[in-house]
Amino acid sequence: MTEINTAAETAAPHRYTAAMAADIEARWQDVWDAEGTYEAPNPSGDLAGDPAIAARPKKFIMDMFPYPSGAGLHVGHPLGYIATDVFARHARMSGHNVLHTLGFDAFGLPAEQYAVQTGTHPRVSTEANMENMKAQLRRLGLGHDKRRSFATIDPEYYKWTQWIFLQIYNSWYDSEAAKARPIAELIEQFENGTREVPGTRAWADLTAAERADVLGEYRLAYASDAPVNWCPGLGTVLANEEVTADGRSERGNFPVFKAKLRQWNMRITAYADRLLDDLDGLDWPEAIKLQQRNWIGRSEGARVDFQVGDTGAITVFTTRQDTLFGATYMVLAPEHDLVEKIVPAAWPEGTHAVWTGGHATPAEAVDAYRKQAASKSDVERQADAKEKTGVFTGAYATNPVSGEQVPVFIADYVLMGYGTGAIMAVPAHDSRDFAFARAFELPMRCVVEPSDDRGTDPSTWDDAFGSYEAKLVNSANGEISLDGLGVVDAKAKITAWLADRGIGEGTVNFRLRDWLFSRQRYWGEPFPIVYDEDGVAHALPESMLPLELPEVEDYSPRTFDPDDADTQPETPLSRNEEWVNVTLDLGDGPKKYRRETNTMPNWAGSCWYELRYLDPHNDRKLVDPAIEQYWMGPRDGMPTGGVDLYVGGAEHAVLHLLYARFWSKILFDLGHISSAEPFHKLYNQGMIQAFVYRDARGIAVPAAEVEERDGAYWYEGEKVSRVLGKMGKSLKNAVTPDEICAEFGADTLRLYEMAMGPLDVSRPWDTRAVVGQYRLLQRLWRNIVDEATGEATVVDTAPDEDTLRALHKAIDGVAQDMAGMRFNTAIAKITELNNHLTKSGGAISRTVAEQLVLLVAPLAPHIAEELWHRLGHTDSVVHQDFPVADPAYVVDETVTCVVQIKGKVRARLEVSPSITDADLEALALADPHVVAALGGAEIRKVIVRAPKLVNIVA
């Protein structure tokens, strides 16, 4: 075999092989880097370039931030990167000034976990991972402007993340102006009396701590006691996504409890309406818009106050205020602040035994139930469990329309994360309330007339009856009656009645909660906040930024008894006393302060990174206004501005995209940027899947070592199962791009991934199929290069008409497919043209060869660059104009017209595309096959659809 290969290589030393591809690719990557081929000039500033280039229409193309994993890339990761690279190259060749680069989202838990296990500093492992990823990405020939790349862990980057946090901290949302404004303007209003200070005292009479508390109710970034998922066994607070459905930690399987901790929050709820409304102007998939709308969860209803003796009022939000007369009990979330205030010392006389949970006092019952509820996740609490649990608080509230005293319970199916954390229960018309009422023997009252024959006595029903179409019944007192009204009219009437009496009002509620912005971890951005000796928070001045992460000896959080819910987290940063306790001069002389020891979540750095790409070396401003306006400012078709194309997985449909939109709107309101939205067009690529092979124990085995025999799959002599799933190291089915590049070359990998199917659809990986694209490139090479001499074989003669038609049809189709990101069909058209040239035989016309190379260039840039130079050019193919089709050759010279008689095809005619209906009818009726088929029958009607159809009714 070796002798045969050696002989072939001797006969064709310039054949396109994997070795030649590797040489070509490495050589041109070096040239592109040295010559700055992909550098996109800004219109001004440090990156200003050729004014002629900057005058071109711009195109800002982005991939979602990659995290530098220690496992490196598998072939599924580059799918989106290759797609944006192809699109960017085509845009560049179509006359655009293209900004396309890639940075790294490098803070996060994986590096910290690795540090805990190995003692390696997170920066060391993260930077090593980045270098590995950069090498893998470079090998793919991605045309990134490397001057603009950065990592979120760079202090010169997170200086501005901290700066943005301070802009948010020092802002409040003016609901009248519907925008963020500096907190200094709010303070001025309090000082001059144009805005009333909450409470009864003047601003000047408040202490510094009291003023801080008042402002904390307005700031867009604020600290508060927030309910969190506390995991003592891990010693850290967990995000909802890190908690399993059974209330345990995803990592380690430890119990997770609901606890209240002092945490930083972002008041994203202030922007709920704008985040909803501005979705309409974005070019995003409708499914993603729907997910955002559902996450924000806007609903219209009313707030209603239920008085609890002299203690105060329980406020509920309801979308069915028309059913208020049917509220027979109330339920608070176990975490609700009012619970402690309303619980009496003893059970009221006549308390039903089933309400007490077997406890001697209300306090005992509430405490026990709260501990039970704290061990459940929100998902588990909201699940439709067969058994409804809860306990009576011992308190009663007054139904404001009926005057009845209704018992107040706590139950885990009510969450603090929605509405007010309290509900009025109308068991006759809500299934969960119905089940709870049955379990606790609570009364039910029908106030919405059933449309079936069940009657109006809920005690005889199998389930609640809910309808927006029915009429109201049993809903009247001495002052108001809703009886006989439809739901809409009843809502309006009762809302007005409540508002007149000051016990309720119409309002809008959102499912969206304020963003919990604290993490008890080391590897994240430090908060630029210090606390004075009175516990008042102070923002660091810009001159003290960046506040860099200090060194710590132990990266792991302190862990506790997994079942001890009463513990508190101890953050790694708190162990560096010299860093935590500092003396600073913040403008009023040196004083002692204590630093914030939580860190920002890993979402922080990805909330604004598109702006840093624009002006990455600016150490004076977040971004130069002229540069931001040029790349991201509003323009025709983009009313809120933003990135022209943003490509990434649909898994970021909500959190990352919502948070980035929120930060953009604040920066826009404060005048720092001109774009109110970060990403105008969003495209979600599909997933590359791979077969997963499992043994009898269900353990994944190495896919590369599985053999297929007689339709079954075997590993080390044992039969294994096969299913299609994700690709990854843990499933032992990962294929690295390095392997494919070594066997076939990077251009082949790029072509295969783009040819696998529509970009937005998931598709299975098949290494055996890669060879098809490899052969395409080999045929392309042979059509232009002599394998014996390495010289171009093209001729300077004009191509024949068939070749011109094949060429220009390919140009027209590929151009349309490129613009629509239909890269698989673009490759099919290029393949068809290349096959036409192969079958034609003989040398190819130079003009055709050059056009073909330009068509291929966005998809397979290395071989295109090599062929372009072998064709005698000295400038790069990257900046050549993309071919333009000649319309005269795109239109078919003839088209096939089908002639039908009584629905059966009787003839096919080759006709001009521009033939008239009359001429086509005459031609069809004169055709010998048609005449024979008619056999002299009378023609009743002729339907002509020129140029492709004639239908004869005889």
Question: Which labels suit this protein?
Answer:
954 residues, alpha+beta, Rossmann fold, Isoleucyl-tRNA Synthetase, domain 2, 5 domains, six-stranded mixed β-sheet, four-stranded parallel β-sheet, 31 strands, globular
Structural description of this entry:
The chain is α+β, with helices and mostly antiparallel strands and 954 residues long. It has five domains: 203 residues, 3-Layer(aba) Sandwich (Rossmann fold), CATH 3.40.50; 171 residues, no CATH class; 213 residues, Alpha-Beta Complex (Isoleucyl-tRNA Synthetase, domain 2); 152 residues, Isoleucyl-tRNA Synthetase, Domain 1 (Orthogonal Bundle), CATH 1.10.730; 62 residues, Roll (Ubiquitin-like (UB roll)). Helix content is 34%, strand content 17%. Strands 22, 23, 24, 25, 26 and 27 form a six-stranded mixed sheet that branches. A four-stranded parallel sheet has the order 2-1-20-21, with helices on both faces. Strand 24 and strand 25 form a beta hairpin. The radius of gyration is 35 Å and the shape is globular. The two termini are 69 Å apart. 41% of the residues are buried.
